[in-house]
Amino acid sequence: MTSPQQPPEPHGHAPGPDHGHGHSTGPATGHGHSHSHGPAAPVSQHLRKVIAAVLIPFATAVLVGLVVLWPGGAPAHERTGVGFDRQTEQGTVVSVEQVDCKDVNAAQVPPTGDTSTPQGREAVNAQQGQCEKATVEVTSGPEKGRTFTEIVQPDAPRQLDEGQGVVVAYAPDAPRDLQYSVTDVNRKLPMALLAGIFAVAVVVVGRMKGLMALVALVASFLVLTFFILPAILEGSNPLVVAVVGSSAIMLIALYLCHGLSARTSVAVLGTLISLLLIGLLGSLFIGWASLSGNTDDNTGLIHGLYPDIDMSGLLLAGIIIGSLGVLDDVTVTQTSAVWELHQADPRMGPRALYRAGIRIGRDHIASVVNTLVLAYAGAALPLLLLFSIAQSSMGTVANSELVAVEIVRTLVGSIGLVASVPLTTVLAALVVSADRPGAAADGKPRAGAVRGGRRRRAK
Q: Does the predicted TM-score (pTM) go above 0.90?
């Protein structure tokens, strides 16, 4: 597209009616090739006011919700020493030596000598072969510099190497020799390096939009860390907190990444309606299927520490937050598709725009739903393997709460995603068709639009 300071280059097009369609929305630069894939043409002031009348009250309600529900921080509790609820410090493996497992009493064989049970067989195997005796130095906390011994059995899933960074659990009430134990390895360096590679790739490929996407990602984590999680722990309704927090994340992410425009606002409206649908369906089927949300050790620990938390509400909140990221992608893509179709042919009415946009949306639906289902299946693969080992029937597997939670999560989210395509396409088609072509955002008439209107009247 030629810049305004340069005269337009001739393209060999006669200004006849054959070239009247699809070229009438550009600025008055003397040529008709304005339907590029750059920023969308500004909509009229009238349409901007209509959109603002819908979104400003919504944004105000989200802001009020943030203020009212804002927590003072996660409430303190006495550590149980179970699972993630343990005091941890950093450590380093100073030395590793090979010792006979019998000499360090790696495991106790049952007094009866029974090896028919898995526990008995593991105990016998643990006393055979060479074990590792690792000396670990604590490198953080009040007892920095203290060392302790960790015995690693030969069949342990995690082996220790000299110089390796580890995470150690600290139990102050235990006997002194048993206060420290290795609970995990330190993965901070590879994780930080991977995050850096991701950030560089996003910025190199996405440029300014990629940078804004990273800023939006940071903002999303801040809302999740400082609002959603502490507010739920304080006893606020998880569903209300999730709706307010997700709405805040949606507004920040979409407007930061795609700009303050009518096109982005339509995507926001489509996402909001779809989230409401997901919330309603999730609430209905979680109650109908009697899903408690307390399905594993982690959720059991949360319920034990904070018994006032509504675990089924927490499950619904997770469905809403988990669906938000994919919804953003679908609604923005559909809105952009309709906007580009309108710029390519401004004569298309809302019905034609919807038909063209929904054809694009059907391809998007097929890929997104398949992606969502496979993502959940991949996350639950170890669980599915356990059911396969137990030779359980498909009905038994689906009926168990562990799997039923994932099924409801997947299907409710997928229904919301499928519904978002026609919803957003309809909204975008109606909004872009309702625009007044003769008045841009600054109130001045658009020359291209006027010429297009004259052509239509001439026809």
A: no
